[in-house]
Fold this sequence. Notes:
The protein is mainly beta. The protein has strands at 3-7, 10-12, 18-25, 34-39, 45-51, 58-60, 68-73, 78-83, 92-97, 109-113. The strands form 2 sheets. A 6-stranded mixed β-sheet has the order 2-10-9-4-5-6, with no helix packed on it. Strands 1-3-8-7 form a 4-stranded antiparallel β-sheet, with no helix packed on it.
Amino acid sequence: EVQLVESGGGLVQPGGSLRLSCSASGCVLVSENIYWLRQAPGKELEWVSTISSVGGFTYYTNSVKGRFTASRDRAKNKMYLELTSLKPEDTATYYCANDRTGTLRGQGTQVIVSS
């Protein structure tokens, strides 16, 4: 059974940074396209980023381009999402998932951007 686990969230001031991690059991993450999604309170699940299994190409939704960076560590079988220049509107629960709809995702990690 494949399980995904996100970590690294927290409370940060506007302009601050966090690094989210995604680890997995039952699969090799770098062999999969991995999607980062987020869900703000009262809003629908939103696609944030994708890192492709082949070539490690990265894609971002417009609102986070230039501020978020997805990466992967083959040796540790982990994926990361570096969040910088955080804004209050980035407040959400962040998930790593196997597709853009979050069919398989972890429990999420909460990011709160507030002064």
